[in-house]
From TrEMBL:
It comes from the Bacteria. InterPro entries: FecR, FecR_C, Ferrdict_sens_TM. Residues 270-338 form the Protein FecR C-terminal domain. Residues 141-227 form the FecR protein domain. GO terms for molecular function: sigma factor antagonist activity. This is DUF4974 domain-containing protein.
């Protein structure tokens, strides 16, 4: 029989013990799978993808497992708690014989109990499924949006970004998937952690305010509360307020302080430049206004620009930049053409 470590997503979707965890807020099952993913970090992404699929369908009534499922589920938790490698349909033999005897006694007790319950229990009612819709919010360049999720969490979605989330969260987890940049004001819920997935990075919180930017690099900046940032490949970092974690393109991981106005000012309609290179200025303007910038010459590597604008038009921003630089500009539809000043 297959071990969980050999499972693919379709195997998890048909495993009763796994589906039980994804469909309920059972703390024992949650502990089992959290511990298992810590020991098998390479499988975390597959497990969470399967979890997301299963949890995308809700039920009006709680699912009551069969007696045999209850026993198998209990055996699974007992095996995990003593450190044995789990095997589907087969119990791996090892040390701790005394513990196995106790576990066996517990299982026998539950067998007797459930045997009595089978005789006296009323017929189980099959619950009526409720379909959960996956929602996609997408902002093109030049457009931002603010909206609330079903749990009350407020999302500020930046331009050239998109967010995928269910119209209702499960009873045990709140998970969204981000491409681009967003600021989250997460409603506190100690029973259901809030997780943002982006490019193999997972940001886990209970209730807090933070910014996630995902492009060539992934940067997580915490404004209030606490977050735990982890990779699907393993390892995790805890952040405190005013700390930012950056996963660089070259694989390096940097933890630093940050200027909240520079990093999250965008959500309050501030366009901020802090000693930005020409490429950084170009990218920010194209993303902010939904235009393309064309330049007839290369800027010197030491060129930089510092400035800030609040709800200003593209023309006013370009006027401010050109006043301290050696170029003029023309705006034609969705193009900005930079023209070098004659020397």
């Amino acid at each position: 029989m297959k071990k969980y470590s050999e499972f693919e997503i379709e195997d998890f979707l048909t495993d009763e013990f796994f589906v039980r965890w994804a469909k309920s807020s059972d703390k024992e099952a949650a502990h089992f799978w959290e511990k298992w993913m810590e020991n098998n970090p390479a499988k975390r992404e597959v497990v969470m993808e399967a979890y997301y699929v299963v949890s995308s369908v809700g039920y009006k009534e709680e699912i009551h497992a069969s007696d045999q499922e209850e026993i198998e589920w209990l055996e699974g938790i007992l095996k995990q708690s003593r450190g044995d490698e789990e095997v589907v349909g087969d119990v791996k033999h090892g040390g701790w014989a005394w513990f196995r005897r106790i576990a066996a006694g517990v299982v026998l007790f539950f067998c007797a109990f459930f045997g009595y319950k089978m005789v006296t229990a009323p017929k189980r009612v099959v619950p009526e499924p409720i379909a959960t819709e996956l929602i996609y919010k997408e902002n093109p360049a030049g457009q931002k949006s603010t909206f609330k999720l079903s749990d009350g969490t407020v999302v500020y979605l930046n331009a050239k970004s998109d967010l995928k989330f269910p119209n209702r969260f499960s009873d045990s987890i709140r998970m969204v998937e981000l491409t681009g940049e967003a600021f989250f004001e997460v409603s506190e819920d100690k029973e259901r952690p809030f997780i943002v997935k982006t490019q193999g990075v997972n940001v886990k919180v209970l209730g807090t305010s933070f910014n996630v930017k995902s492009d060539a690099e992934v940067a997580v900046a915490l404004v209030e509360g606490k977050v735990t940032v982890s990779r699907d490949t393993g390892g995790q970092v805890h952040l405190s307020p005013n700390e930012m974690l950056t996963y660089k393109e070259d694989g390096k991981v940097l933890k630093s302080s940050f200027d909240p106005f520079e990093i999250v000012g965008w959500k309050d309609k501030y366009l901020v430049f802090r000693e930005d290179s020409f490429l950084e200025v170009k990218n920010k303007i194209e993303k902010w206004y939904g235009v393309k910038i064309q330049c007839a010459r290369d800027f010197q590597s030491d060129w930089s620009y510092t400035g800030q604008y609040y709800q200003e038009s593209l023309d006013r921003v370009m006027e401010g930049i050109s006043a301290t630089s050696e170029f003029s500009y023309q705006i034609k539809d969705k193009k900005v053409i930079l023209i070098p000043n004659p020397k």
